[in-house]
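Help!! Second protein's tokens look totally different from the first
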Amino acid sequence: MSAIATTESIEIRAPSGQEEGTRSQLLRWLKSVGELVAEHEPLIELETDKVTVEVASPADGVLAEILKQEQEEVAPGELLGRISQGEPTQEASARPGLGGPGAPPPGTASGKASARPGPGGPGAPPSASLASTMLGATARQLSPAVRRLLAEYSLDPASVRGTGDGGRITVADVMREISDSAASARGAAPGAGRLPPPRPHVDASADLRGNERAASHRVPHSAVRKRIAARMVESLLHTAPHVTTVFEVDLGEVLAHRQQHREEFARAGAALTLTAYFAQAAVAAIREVPEANSRWTDTELEIYDTINLGIATAAEGGLVVPVLHAAESLDLLETARRLEELVRRARDGALASEDVRGGTFTLSNHGVSGSLLATPIIIPQPQSAILGLGKLEKR
């Protein structure tokens, strides 16, 4: 993020170092026009087609102007708003923002109600106390995915027991608290409940043929899901020729090696997963067939000299592909350690932009769901190949 100082204000700009073709959407402002902001405090959440990132405040001051609204698409380096380092002026307060033209800043005598929707009591901003709590010092340690869940289900962070590093709250912690709360409300044992849906929109209107259709609710597509769908169509129909081959592999020696060394790896601070073995095998195979680690274009095949392995990971809100950079330089222990860290951050919603850039070959372990063969396995274009890993069976 870049900040350009003027005599009156400091500009808030979107990160400019995004990978070519990456799209961003302004997910939400964490402050309203007229509110005080501190330097490095999370100010905006941007959702790209790969990961949710925070834009921090470039300076202390007052949020004077919001130029890009929530759910609008954002270009790299685009001006999003301005911070005033003096007292907010009448002109600044009247500029378009979350409070609307001429609206008083939240927290003033004439502006007690917040513009942000959420649960709450009559006459009060639905999520005012929750937002106030979550925007404090503790909130800066929460990932965007965690904050979304807390706000969606009206949970106070103080009520959730964190199991992450240093007691940090993870997505799994929030989901467990939601489930336990639902179970308690029905008089069941904690952990036995299903998650309550966040007030779905029920639509029982007639379809185009005049027939009554079943009651339903709609879940808007996130930027991640829309981009996944677009890439599936793009990869299969428009970008490059495809071929799928299927092999069976005897993993007996791998399992024996893992059994022999997993405690040793655990003492070294790494979980020895099968994915680490597959990553090392992919590196060995690419050394034999470098063309698999390449980029397809209409005129040539660009073969990469480094091996950056994308690791497809199921996370809250969809599939993300963090990248294990320079995998050819890692031994099995460092591969296992780096994979564990990447997957943990992916599932906590804590990936940074650089964590999902530059992949040259991808691994997708669809076997975790019991799948023997998944087709099509979508190649993350412009990569040339992907390795799909099915279910491990004892024979």
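Here's the second one for comparison:
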Amino acid sequence: MRARIAKYRRLEPNDRSDFVIGCRLLTQPFFFDEPDWIPAPSSWSPNIVSFKTYDTAEADGRALWDAVGDRMSRSPIFTNGPVDRFGEPMLVTRLGAGLIPRSGDGYL
């Protein structure tokens, strides 16, 4: 795993530094029906391994923004208000990796 991270970050293969690995969490994802899928812009690469952004001041970003807005304006999910699509919320206790305090974190 370390070797693969070093490769993606263009570091020395034997780099033993403490890699910071981030995670993004989508809080309110939505999905279009297949006929409404938006084709990827020509500037999109299938080999992107880090966060890709588009600026609405540029052509590709503006086209994506407009395409999403167009599809949202035609969808009852967005035009009729929130829809309870997945049932009632529930609290789930997760067992797994917890916080491991380190010196300097203010926990010790």
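Reply: Different proteins will give different token patterns, so don't panic. Helices lie at 2-8, 59-73, 76-79.
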